[in-house]
């Protein structure tokens, strides 16, 4: 039996819709194939039939499913393919990657708060602008980023920082301030809020990247916690040749 989380703030029908959507995306349910009945879906997730119907109706409204009278409900659309994001290892390559792609940042929260840095990360600036954003490509969300930018740098071009991708602007406006830049990649699973924003099932695999930029005085001028969809990440490494 598939599971839904009763303690999650995400409604049950949305959790089920995420699971069904994921099956279509992975090809478990292919285009033109009839899906299980509402009774079967309800039994699988141990929910009421009305909850299963809400999930299926949501996918119908998205165009992924189509009902056919007397025949059942069919997969009507192949989900769009997520273009992988290359994990790069230099600041210049990171800026170039962002500049070369058409991404649509959507800010879902903005405030002033301190980044959760440790002493090993560097010294804190006086004040930071915090933005939580969803980055999309071709209309598909592929990462959620929680970023903290030194307010002194933010004030240099607030409109651009609010409406464009931050790293290319930061590199172009203040390259001399970035004395050190590093990132750490870990693998995990999506919590309910991240899953909702990325349109993936709760506990779906994700890649988490922590980025820290420091100025010459070791002050943290940029801190970001970036969560990527698992199917949006591509890691490629040249291992060289084997010597005989």
From TrEMBL:
Alphabetically ordered keywords of this record: DNA-binding, Transcription, Transcription regulation
One of the GO biological process terms: negative regulation of DNA-templated transcription
Entries under InterPro entries matching the protein: Bact_HTH_transcr_reg, Chorismate_lyase_/UTRA_dom_sf, Tscrpt_reg_HTH_GntR, UTRA, WH-like_DNA-bd_sf, WH_DNA-bd_sf
HTH gntR-type domain sequence ranges: 10-78
SUPFAM superfamilies, per database record: Chorismate lyase-like, Winged helix' DNA-binding domain
Taxonomy, superkingdom: Bacteria
GO MF entry, a single one: DNA binding
Protein name as catalogued: HTH-type transcriptional repressor NagR
Origin species: Paraburkholderia ultramafica
Gene: nagR_2
């Amino acid at each position: 039996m598939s599971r839904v989380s009763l303690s999650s703030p995400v409604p049950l029908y949305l959790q089920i819709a995420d699971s069904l959507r994921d099956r279509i995306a992975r090809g478990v349910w292919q285009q033109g194939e009839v899906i299980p009945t509402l009774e079967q879906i309800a039994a699988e997730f141990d929910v009421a039939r009305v909850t299963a119907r809400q999930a299926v109706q949501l996918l119908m409204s998205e165009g992924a499913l189509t009902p056919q009278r007397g025949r059942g409900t069919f997969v009507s659309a192949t989900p769009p393919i997520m273009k992988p994001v290359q994990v790069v290892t230099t600041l210049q390559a990171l800026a170039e990657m962002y500049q070369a792609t058409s991404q649509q940042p959507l800010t879902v929260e903005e405030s002033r708060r301190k980044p959760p840095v440790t002493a090993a990360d560097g010294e804190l600036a006086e004040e930071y602008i915090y933005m939580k954003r969803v980055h999309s490509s071709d209309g598909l969300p592929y990462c959620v980023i929680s970023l903290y930018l030194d307010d002194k740098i933010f004030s240099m071009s607030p409109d651009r920082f609010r409406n464009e991708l931050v790293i290319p602007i930061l590199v172009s406006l203040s390259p001399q301030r970035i004395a050190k830049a590093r990132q750490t990649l870990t693998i995990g699973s999506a919590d309910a809020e991240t899953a909702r924003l990325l349109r993936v099932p709760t506990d779906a695999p994700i890649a988490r990247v922590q980025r820290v930029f420091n100025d010459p005085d070791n002050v943290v001028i940029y801190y970001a916690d970036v969560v990527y969809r698992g199917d949006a990440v591509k890691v490629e490494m040249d291992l060289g040749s084997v010597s005989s």
